[in-house]
Design a protein that fits this description.
By secondary structure, the protein is mainly α. The chain is built from 14 helices and two strands. It starts with a helix and ends with a helix.
């Protein structure tokens, strides 16, 4: 029962913060609380929410992936390029995902071979992937950050359509939440990630195939990042190399705010999902009250700092409370 309370406590705080957020923005604009607006606005931050799910896996293992935004742009451009060259949107879709898988494999392999911190490796690879995306966009006849358009309606409707009155982004997000919740919290692979995050050396000596787990985790992250980029291309009806360029800060904020420790060993898909909604609706609300995107980034930076320091103090207070309760229990005995 104690572990269950611990598991539910922080998500409960996030739910409370979301309700407070709704109350604040609802006083500024009644349109904010419109159910239809809330559902369809998920399309605006879908790429953040779905990219935060594999980031939870990576951070739980004690690593990080700064290149996730660049992979979004690369996945988007590969989809657009293959579409322009072949006219086959299914092939283009899977080409984009394949590009993400290869990018993730490169990240994981370089981290293992060099033993350099994942922050440094993925920061460097982000320049590689973003430069490659910009170069490939020229092969499709676009220059600079000009987009590749002309996608068929079937592709555009992926991020803009609906099923039984429910927007497709909501359905996509729910499906991925269930998938990643199962992976992280109900599989041996997920347990391996937590163990690696707590003690890489201990995990290795206990027989866990740490190298394989790390590479697979980054491949998963690359595929989902590319998928997020493809969803952006579908949503905006245009593939561009800079799609997702602003994603890493927000994605990491959502993951840490959701309960993952930057030192590894902890992470929650439910927490990450709630934090994604909190941050997504924060951006939506700020835009609704005419706050510019540059000013919004200031708020996000503050939230990241507060979330990291807040989680630290939260854990310190919880630890002291547990110690006091343990002492009282011993005194009673």
């Amino acid at each position: 029962m104690g572990s269950l309370k611990k598991y539910l406590l922080w998500p409960s705080v996030l739910i409370l913060l979301i309700l407070i957020e709704f109350g604040i923005f609802g006083t500024f604009s009644s349109r904010f609380l419109n159910i239809s607006n809330l559902l369809y606005s998920i399309g605006d931050f879908l790429y953040i929410a779905i990219a935060a799910l594999p980031m939870t896996l990576i951070i739980a293992s004690g690593a990080i992936d700064i290149s996730i935004g660049a992979i979004m742009g690369l996945g988007s451009i590969l989809t657009g390029l293959v579409w322009v060259k072949t006219g086959n949107i299914q092939l283009a879709f899977f080409a984009g995902l394949a590009g993400g898988a290869v990018s993730g494999f490169i990240n994981g392999s370089l981290i293992l071979m060099t033993q350099v911190n994942s922050l440094v490796i993925t920061l460097g690879s982000s320049f590689l992937f973003s430069g490659l995306a910009l170069t490939l966009s020229g092969l499709a006849g676009s220059t600079g950050f000009e987009g590749i358009g002309g996608f068929p309606d079937s592709f555009v409707n992926i991020a803009n359509g609906e099923v039984l009155g429910l927007p497709n982004p909501v359905i996509i997000l729910l499906g991925l939440i269930i998938l990643f919740y199962f992976i992280l919290h109900h599989t041996k692979f997920g347990r391996y990630l937590f163990l690696i995050g707590m003690s890489p050396e201990g995990a290795r000596y206990s027989g866990i195939p740490t190298a394989r787990v790390v590479v697979i985790t980054y491949v998963i992250s690359g595929i989902i990042a590319a998928f997020a980029g493809i969803m952006l291309a579908s949503y905006f009806t245009s593939a561009r190399s800079d799609l997702g360029a602003d994603a890493p800060l927000t994605v990491i904020t959502c993951t840490v705010l959701g309960g993952a420790s930057i030192y590894g060993g902890t992470g929650s898909i439910i927490g990450t999902t709630l934090a994604s909604l909190l941050i997504g609706y924060l951006k939506y609300g700020l835009q609704m009250i005419k706050i510019t995107s540059h000013q919004t980034n200031v708020f996000l930076g503050i939230v990241l700092i507060v979330s990291i320091s807040g989680r630290y103090f939260w854990e310190q207070i919880s630890s002291r409370h547990k110690n006091k309760m343990a002492l009282k229990h011993e005194e009673l005995l």
